[in-house]
Amino acid sequence: MLRKVSNFVTGTARMAFLGGNKLYYAWLGLLAFCIVQGLFAYAQQFEHGLIVTHMRDSVSWGFYIGNFTFLVGVAAAAVLLVIPAYVYDWKPIKEVALFGEMLAVASIVMCLLFVMVDMGHPERFWHLIPGLGHMNLPSSIMAWDSLVLNIYLLVNLSVASYLVYCAYYGIHYNHKIVVPLVIFSIPMAISIHTVTAFLYNGMASRPYWNSAILAPRFIASAFCSGPALLLILFQILRKVSAFEIKDEAIHKVAELMSYAMGFNLFLFGAEVFKEYYSNTHHLVHYQYLFAGLHGKPSPIALYAWMSLIFAVVSFLLFLIPKTRRMPLTMNIGCVLIYMSVYIEKGIALIIPGFTPDQLGQVYEYVPSATELRIAAGVFGIGFLLFTLMVKVSVVILFEREQGPAHA
Amino acid sequence: MSDLTVTPLPVPEPPAEGFTRREALILGLFALAGAATTSGCSSDQKAMDEFVQKHFKDLSPEELKTVLARMEKNLTKKYGKPVTVSATPAMEGVLFGYALDLSRCIGCRRCVYGCVDENNQSRDPQTHYITVLEMDKEKGVDLQDANAYYDHETVPAEGKFYMPVSCQQCENSPCSKVCPVGATWKEPDGIVVIDYNWCIGCRSCIAACPYGARRFNWGEPNIPADELNPVTEYLGNRPRPRGVVEKCTWCLHRVRKGLYPKCVEVCPVGARKFGNLLDPDSEIRYIIENKRVFILKEELNTQPKFFYYYGL
Amino acid sequence: MTGAKPAVGTVAASAKPAAALFPVAPPPFSDGVFPCSECHKPGDKVDRVPHKVEFHEDIVLHHDEKNRWCLDCHDAAHRDSLHLADGRLIPFTESYRLCGQCHGPTLRNWKAGEHGKRTGSWSGAKQYLLCPSCHSPHSPHFKPLKPKSPPLRQEAIK
């Protein structure tokens, strides 16, 4: 048994790093570069503290937590893609589920890394381990979030590695184990993003977040960004491997994304209406988001408008059947959706919530170079993990003769 | 392939005895502590002791004694003068309250710097617990129009009034509610405290506080040795490490010995009032019963024990 | 740290011990002016018409000056004391009784601890400041102060 596992590990490692084309190695090189420079940046932060970021007491969360929030959405939506795969009975259902789970694993790893780099005392993470530390349950949403994210990671990691392991040895996976876990991961996916939304939602101190439709907005936008990433991946895989997915399946996902984006825009509109029509003091945060305060233009307004325009354009591209089916416009739509949601979660969610601060003071936060570099490093790690996992699965599933591997 | 079940959680069975847990922890996470240590062999032991230290409330009396002794030793060495670290418990039958007369405050910021000296706040990077807001008399309390950075030749400036804000010591404190590790809590005498050795530095509490009262040590805090207040409390004014949150404790190290908080004593206009809410003869009760007091952001139901009023 | 302050109530140079109920800090005399009887002798001629006083040039009366004069509060016959409106003498350490004749509600709030500054212990012995400690009796309006420096803008914290 132990030998089988060690063979599996060395075998898959060989598959991950050997036998790729030039582009593959260039991609790995790029990711390695991101990681290495990120490590250097993190070493600097470790040495001097979070003062090397531009976060300060007024804006006490920034780019790291924005990325964390975005990636929770990606992690959730990646698995949710399993639902249409089942409903519409696509042929490569197993592969779609597998890639979804792998994307979820990579995203959650990035989430946890972003939380780690945001912590003032990362070495005290054990205070959050149940039974060992001192978790503040049930009242702390952050404690719940750390719990559900770790369970979600564990479930997806188990399922994904088990499926690959079985495929590696050409044995059939045990339905009784996999199916309940995959089904369990679907409500888990909804719950991780809901709990993450509640993290902000529950803070009466920040009227910008203290809105009941924040969690629904999170879910709606996640249904856009996660599939956007997977659609691009499916097309690449279709080109470079024996992975098969019908056009109809891709178009169906795009159609679902347009509904999700439509709903997302509707919810956003409802929020904007409430704030601007009632015109209470809470409006200041939206004013900072879209224009600026005290006659000074806000450094994030440009991004906010970009996010909104990208959302509307991609919504239209995916809504109109013709542009949805045309590969070029569909891929443009995917990129626009991804960028729109990335800006919305990474920048437009966190920063305006803190600006102006609780006492009306304005600190104009923009991420420091160190923050950007560390974030690039974390993305490097996540994408590398995802790339290697996908590479291994592609080799096992499509390129190798099926059957037990040599010992 | 029935043995292919989910990987077991890397978490030990339900609470074993504290000591074995600590032992397991030391073994399992030694490498991390090593990484956390910045330099030197002697600091390795210190870092390890801090790393495995339990939550303040989980410390037995003996363990607490050891921890306090270790801190006193380390701080005495660091600052080159005797530093005491105590863990004075809350008094029985005491619930502290604070009142501030907005009609008297002139915005001179004596309280801000008195507090810095008394509570060993970092001088560089600068940390202040008290933010004094300047607002227009014509507009009244309007935070969106408030300015914390005013700089006049003399105060009060024409047409302005001043509102100092610091921790409101909420009965229903949102900061302690959101803390994922329970590193901040409300003491029996109503003061919200932080275990700086348990805080993981996630800053959820800063996001949750409606009063902008909490401060994070973004960099290494810096206090000149000759300015250090050597009489300190574990949950109060002992020098804080980098990467943790701190806040006003109403001078826990003073008020639990019966003294007034420093800000009350340095206020040149007597705008600041402090006392026991449970004592009907206290000045704080007199003010609440006889003046028109208000609390900041009342609609959030945080139930501050910090009352503002207009004495004139 | 407790009890570091000098014991209260044993103050005010030659004046009588202050009333135990309100332990106050010493009256804030200018240097060398007290006791007044050093200069003002019992036999001195007393001019009750308001006029400029040469020795006390620094005193500018801005305290209902149209209706008030030195000897409304200072006693001509007992220079080291003050007197109330009904003529009863009081020591300088009880000047609040004099001020309270006009400022009744303020005296009430001061006694309760609401008006003025308290130091010492919230639970035990408190030290009160006399009215003149903050308000010059001759010109009681609180003088503006130079504020301490503003906090650094967060952009400047590096």
Largest sheet of chain A: 2 strands, antiparallel
Quaternary state reads heterotrimer
Number of domains of chain C: 1
For this structure, what is the CATH class of chain A? Mainly Alpha
- Low-pLDDT segments, ≥5 res of chain A: 402-407
Counted by DSSP, the helix tally of chain A is: 15
What can you tell me about this protein's structure?
- The complex is a heterotrimer of chains A (407), B (312) and C (158).
- By secondary structure, chain A is mainly alpha-helical.
- In chain A, 72% of the residues lie in helices and 1% in strands.
- Chain B folds into 2 domains: 18-81, no CATH class; 82-312, Alpha-Beta Plaits (2-Layer Sandwich).
- Chain B is 27% helix and 14% strand.
- The radius of gyration of chain C is 19 Å and the shape is globular.
- The interface between A and B is large, with 68 and 69 residues.
Compose a concise summary of this entry.
Chain A is mostly helical. Chain A has helices at residues 2-17, 22-48, 63-80, 82-87, 93-118, 141-168, 175-201, 214-240, 247-278, 284-290, 301-319, 321-325, 327-346, 350-354, 369-399, and strands at residues 292-293, 296-297.
Which structural traits does this protein have?
heterotrimer; A: Formate dehydrogenase/DMSO reductase fold; 72% helix; globular; disordered C terminus; B: 312 residues; alpha+beta; Alpha-Beta Plaits; 2 domains; four-stranded mixed sheet; disordered N terminus
Write the SSE topology:
The complex is a heterotrimer of chains A (407), B (312) and C (158).
Chain A: H1 2-17, H2 22-48, H3 63-80, H4 82-87, H5 93-118, H6 141-168, H7 175-201, H8 214-240, H9 247-278, H10 284-290, E1 292-293, E2 296-297, H11 301-319, H12 321-325, H13 327-346, H14 350-354, H15 369-399
Antiparallel strand pairs in A: 1-2
Helix pairs in contact in A: 1-15, 2-15, 3-5, 3-7, 3-8, 3-13, 5-6, 5-15, 6-7, 7-8, 8-9, 8-13, 9-11, 11-13
Chain B: H1 18-28, H2 30-36, H3 42-52, H4 61-79, E1 84-86, E2 96-101, H5 110-119, E3 131-136, E4 160-165, H6 174-178, E5 184-186, E6 192-194, H7 204-208, E7 215-216, E8 231-233, E9 245-246, H8 252-255, H9 262-266, E10 272-276, H10 283-290, E11 293-294, E12 306-309
Parallel strand pairs in B: 1-8, 2-12
Antiparallel strand pairs in B: 2-10, 3-4, 5-6, 7-9, 11-12
Helix pairs in contact in B: 2-3
Chain C: E1 82-83, E2 89-90, H1 95-99, H2 104-112, E3 118-120, E4 126-128, H3 131-134
Antiparallel strand pairs in C: 1-2, 3-4
